[in-house]
Amino acid sequence: MNPLLARDYEVPKKPIFRLEGRTVVQSTEASAFMPNSITDSVMYSTNGHLGLRHLSEVERVGFKTEVLMNGIYHEEPTDTWEFKGIPRTNQVGASICTVDFDCMLDGESGTLSSIPHRELNLDDGAYRSKCSDVMSADNGVIFDTNYMRTVALSDLSAWGAQVCYTDFRLSDIGSPVSVGSVSNAGLDNGVMSSSAPHSFSMDSMSDRAQQTHQSLTIDRPQESLNYRIELVVLISINQECWDVVHEGMDRICQSSLTSDSAVTTFTEVSCVVNYGDRYNLLQAEVQSTPWARDPESDTTSPFLRDLYNVNASGSRDGPSSYSNKEGKVHGRSDRHGRDTSAFRRPDTWNYHAFHSPNKAQRSYVIKKRFMLTLTPERVPDSVVLTFRACHKRAVTEQRLRALPTVEEMIADQRAALELFWKTFDADVKLQDDLSPSRSSLPFVYNAFRMFMVSHGLEGGLSRSGLSAAGDGLLFNLSEYIYYGLYYLLTQPEACLLLLKSVYHMLPQSRKYARVLAMNRGAVFPLKTISGVHSTHPANVSNARFHVNAEIGFLIALYDDASENIPAEDRLLLLELMMESARIWPQCGEWQDDHTVFRLDNIAGTDEYNSNASGNFYVNISARRHISSAFSFLDRQQGHLTEEQLNSVFASLGMTRHEMAELQAVGNGIVVPQRHERLGVYMVHDNFDTLLDWGNDRARHPLHLNYHPIHIYRRKLIDVPEVLLGMLLYPDEFDQRDFRQNFEYYLPLCTFDSPESLFVMVHALCRARSSFSQPMPLLRSLANIDLDNIVYSAEGGLHFSAIATTLPGLIFGCGGVRLSHKGLQVNPILPARVERYSFTIKWRGAVLRVLVDYVNITYDLLSGASLRFIHGARGERIHLHTGFGHCPKITHLAIPRTRLSQVAQFDGVVLLSDCLFDNLLEYSYRSWYKTLETLFDTYRVLHNRPIPPLTPEEFIEKVVYQCEDGEISFSGIGHILQRRGVHLELGTPEDAEIVETRYGLANAKVAEMTEMVLMTPPPVNPGLFSLLKCLVENGVALAVVSYSRTLKQLLASNPQLTRLFVASIDGEEAHDWKIKGQPHLDLYIRAAEKIHVDTSRCLVISHHLDRGFNAKEMSRFRMFIDVEDPFVSSRFPSSPYPTLTPEESQETGRYNPVVCRLKLSQIPSTIDELEDLVDGRSV
């Protein structure tokens, strides 16, 4: 890719989250340095209908949740002028309310003493947060909290949360005492419960809590160790969006001020105090406080609506108060025998809210609070605050059924997830993973997210999946193609729900077609909220109809992938297919004597190329759309009656004449041909005439940093439309097409969107097969949200990235093709990948594919029978559970085939110093300048001469340095010690000015990087030609270096870089504790990364004549020592190590194990290299 144009998606070394079993846990090491918005997005809860965005605890023990609801929000024009064609709009009304939980002691919120432990359980869908050693303002009380939140699946409008306060500890006169009890806060089915108490001592406190306790404790007399605990539940509703009326917190009605939407919220709040084997159900008081509008502004506000005329008991004009009249005491007095039914009135206390929402925002606030007294004699085991809510669209007088309990919500989710995980598998194990399960996490997490939102798919899937308000709540139908592909692979029934959500947009889409002067058909919007096109006029210079074609593609593929489709669904899909396809005759015109149908001025899916005619993706999509529509119609005739078919066409008003015209248009659409000179398909007619980007580093995303005209005039792409068309319709292209088009478009791609990463992963694997390197792109795609790579956590999750991660693995590495011909699987094992696995649902069966170094394994996990095609040769495989006299075959392991066409070896590992002429001279000059800077300082400070570094000393101490273990720059250490300078090793993070050996090494890297940028070292032409020949013959190549300048060297030579499938530089060598020379660890690891046995691997290196062990070197096929003029002109070569007769007999190898090669004798062909290895030429 082009480093000046491509966006950088660097995945950090240290993950923000880790996977423990099937639980996503926030890393405590990373949490101190990241914004809480990352956790809020990643660990939100949703069932596709409700989205619960948790606002993480920062300093106080308060829990705040924003409730978003699908289908209730709408769009509001924001243009100041009367523009009704395509107005600019904003999302309004998605946030139903926010719900706060707080625990206050004597009017002050508890303060956190450490970062909470936060986790999301992917087995039961619940989010949990534990705050340890929470302290009161005077530090007289310390306790723990366990918070849990979940959504319901049996009733998508319901959710619940629970806070359990446990382990209360009081202190007197600056010392804690053992008066409390500790609850294990057991999580039986996800709900907290209390356990028997035990004594508390200072040892049970965390170190940080002890320090804070000792520094903040205020001496209090024993008689004043009484605390008033107030547990508050607060609901806030934005009155700028909603008009509110309520009859207590149990039922709240709110009506939109800008639409006819209405919501009724039912809640149930309880607070239970546990004392040993008894518990008390506390009374509560409810208060409501509406925001007081400015009367003058109210009279002119266009959003003011008095929808409810209520009396004082529910007035919006002033605060009202309600009290529950029943306070229940269950079966006992307190532990000391006193009656606990007495309840001190809350209004006699000095209550201060932990925040003032009406001062910060215009909100209607409803509070419910519970009170209890905490004394040394009366300390509860636990206090459990439970909140349940259900949000119904429209005004409803009463609930139709009782709210599910929190236990029931978790049980429902656990049961649904158990069935899902039973037949789902997606796992990747990389050889260079520093953290366990680092590569598995995004696949498991993303699958969980897509499964949860699937329950509300019929209402549509927004860009952020209800993880945040704002633009992320738009339905981006151009992303539905990726959602649909994901669900076709994992949950075909969910793909049908997604298509139904599009079907519900038909009325609005038909109206939109009329706006575009089309008298029939429906045009689906790119982005919408309520079915109406939502965009800005600047982005619609050309019409966009590719969404219609993508809907048709999904319908046809769903029909191929599913076994049993009910008749009513077939009718629905047929109507959707035909209504979306019939627009194409109205989008173009006949030319060349009615032989060619041209689709001009229609833009594709790439925003950066939306201002030109002859779009490749539009033409191929439209042609295949029409073809698929008629094929789909033919297949339905075997499932639907003629009467049913006629009813569909009658309702559409579609005549035989129109059908014939549509078919003729489909035959007349001509996909643009390959460019005569370049041999690739052009994005549009004028793409090859555009200007190159130039030498300036692009600022991303481009559409936010450059004028549209500046972008349109440049030869660049975001979503590679040509490659996307080849992904969706692979049967129209051959391997040469994939290879040439990928190589052409890769350096032109900006990678400004997750979709571009997915398309490029697929194209890379198809173009380069086993020699591809898809994992850097796939890792970036998979971790966009989990590692906040593009710093967009405030806007919620990117569901386009979530949905394309697994298809990137399946279509890319797995080589899966889906079509009416059936399922095809052609897996590869890319470099750096130890193993990977995934599952596919196809025609009622579930197939698991496992790929490792040895085998490709297929397992039939469910279903009675599955036929598919394996490998490039098209071997047909039938897995089944047995039939007739045939025994079952549900498991099949196929050995991976060797790709190399060379008899002597399968792979080659090269030291980077060999690839470039005079690279050691660059290294010497860099070290010379770096050390001279240090020596000048010492010369001045110590007033003594220090000799500079000489080439001979550099060769002796650095080039031929021998490391006992990991890289420690021992040669530089010896050079410094000779001059009386003693420096510690330091760490790789040391800055260039830090006087450590790593600090010097970092300064040297910076110096050499600048030299390489100014004057790139020339690539050895002989080796370059040989390497190209090796790749053409299926030999895997890896390049290695002990230096951290390797990345810069490769970046400056893209033609050389693409030859290698793996690399190791000094940074990776340090991370994996690879030993320095003369150890062979660097070469051994490189061979592992390219999946080549060392006995069939050549090593091309430098300076192998000192310190190396012949027996260790005999593990490789051969070492080739290429002449280096910088060294050979100053030092004579020493004899190479040789095997003793005993070692030869033990290893089965014979001398020589190392072959010297002069620069003038570098082989130019495979034959010459094989002769060199065989010993027939030297």
Automatic annotation (TrEMBL):
<feature type="compositionally biased region" description="Polar residues">
    <location>
        <begin position="310"/>
        <end position="324"/>
    </location>
</feature>
<feature type="domain" description="Glycoside hydrolase family 65 central catalytic">
    <location>
        <begin position="486"/>
        <end position="806"/>
    </location>
</feature>
<dbReference type="InterPro" id="IPR012341">
    <property type="entry name" value="6hp_glycosidase-like_sf"/>
</dbReference>
<dbReference type="Pfam" id="PF03633">
    <property type="entry name" value="Glyco_hydro_65C"/>
</dbReference>
<dbReference type="InterPro" id="IPR005194">
    <property type="entry name" value="Glyco_hydro_65_C"/>
</dbReference>
<dbReference type="InterPro" id="IPR008928">
    <property type="entry name" value="6-hairpin_glycosidase_sf"/>
</dbReference>
<dbReference type="InterPro" id="IPR023198">
    <property type="entry name" value="PGP-like_dom2"/>
</dbReference>
<protein>
    <recommendedName>
        <fullName>Glycosyl hydrolase</fullName>
    </recommendedName>
</protein>
<dbReference type="InterPro" id="IPR023214">
    <property type="entry name" value="HAD_sf"/>
</dbReference>
<dbReference type="InterPro" id="IPR036412">
    <property type="entry name" value="HAD-like_sf"/>
</dbReference>
<feature type="domain" description="Glycoside hydrolase family 65 C-terminal">
    <location>
        <begin position="817"/>
        <end position="870"/>
    </location>
</feature>
<feature type="compositionally biased region" description="Basic and acidic residues">
    <location>
        <begin position="325"/>
        <end position="342"/>
    </location>
</feature>
<feature type="region of interest" description="Disordered">
    <location>
        <begin position="309"/>
        <end position="342"/>
    </location>
</feature>
<dbReference type="Pfam" id="PF03632">
    <property type="entry name" value="Glyco_hydro_65m"/>
</dbReference>
<dbReference type="GO" id="GO:0005975">
    <property type="term" value="P:carbohydrate metabolic process"/>
</dbReference>
<dbReference type="InterPro" id="IPR005195">
    <property type="entry name" value="Glyco_hydro_65_M"/>
</dbReference>
<dbReference type="GO" id="GO:0004553">
    <property type="term" value="F:hydrolase activity, hydrolyzing O-glycosyl compounds"/>
</dbReference>
